[in-house]
Design a protein that fits this description.
This protein is of the alpha/beta class and 256 residues long. The chain is built from eleven helices and nine strands. The strands form two sheets. A six-stranded mixed β-sheet has the order 1-2-3-4-6-9, sandwiched between helices.
């Protein structure tokens, strides 16, 4: 199954995403992932959650091919609502969520990671938002939780990536380890949390969310409004069609 959950005797629920070849998720999968994360947190026998992925990378965002193969805006709306649900689920999960990032984390993956409690990554893993190259916006809210403000703007406007090692320097990534140690490292952090009194940890998660200076859900929803505008103007379709056809971003000179 593409999204699976297992719970250890110590109370760590591991949720694994597996959508070959690059873990670009169709709209339905975002809702499924949200349900799995929330269900884990609602289970009192779960003390911590590890979110990981199989394959070449952690997450490549939404499945643009699915979106472009669907008439009208239904797939776009579903993808946007699905992403919002999954990002919120990580944030609202009643226990800490530890993400194990292998290879790459781009697009919607940034929304998952930016809302997580602990991030561990494999050496050389990259993080980024190619949204402007797809004629869309979104997840600047979450990227801003990973890097300083001006770095976020630079990465966003240029659709450039930042490495796990750079994020370790900024303090947003907890550990960077060889790929073959990634799962064990994430599990070790989760086990440390799971060994605490889960009543206290659940209260701590709620308290930390309540003192957060940014309402991540409202902020992301505002970003999505601009994405909808770009779609209505036809701009987003131009960029997505170009990406589906060539695998490369569309460049536009002198656009108005």
């Amino acid at each position: 199954m593409p999204i699976t959950s297992t719970r250890s005797a110590s109370g760590v629920t591991t949720i694994t995403v597996d959508y070959p070849p690059v873990n670009a998720l169709p709209s339905a999968a975002w809702f499924e992932l949200a349900d799995a994360i929330l269900a884990a947190g609602d289970d009192l026998d779960t003390h911590a959650v590890v979110l990981r992925a199989e394959g070449r990378g952690f997450n490549a965002g939404v499945d643009i091919k699915e979106m472009q193969a669907t008439e009208g805006f239904d797939a776009l709306i579903a993808a946007n609502h699905g992403c919002a649900a999954a990002f919120s689920a990580v944030y609202d999960c009643k226990v800490p969520v530890i993400v194990a990032v292998n290879g790459f984390c781009v697009g919607g993956g940034i929304g998952l990671v930016g809302n997580a409690d602990v991030i561990v990554a494999s050496e050389g893993a990259v993080f980024g938002l190619p949204e402007v190259d797809r004629g869309a916006l979104g997840a600047a809210t979450h990227l801003a939780r990973l890097v300083p403000q001006h770095m976020m703007r630079t990465l966003y406007y240029t659709a450039s990536n930042v490495t796990a090692e750079q994020l370790l320097h900024f303090g947003s990534v907890y550990k960077v380890v060889p790929a073959d140690e990634l799962d064990a490292t994430a599990l070790d952090v989760a086990e440390q949390i799971a060994a605490k009194d889960t009543r206290v940890i659940r209260a701590a998660k709620s308290a930390i969310n309540h003192i957060d200076p940014v309402d991540v859900k409202a902020s992301y929803r505002l970003e999505q409004g601009y994405t909808f505008e770009l779609n209505l103007a036809g701009v987003a379709d131009e960029h997505r069609d170009a990406f589906v056809a060539t695998g490369k971003p569309k460049t536009t000179q002198g656009s108005r």
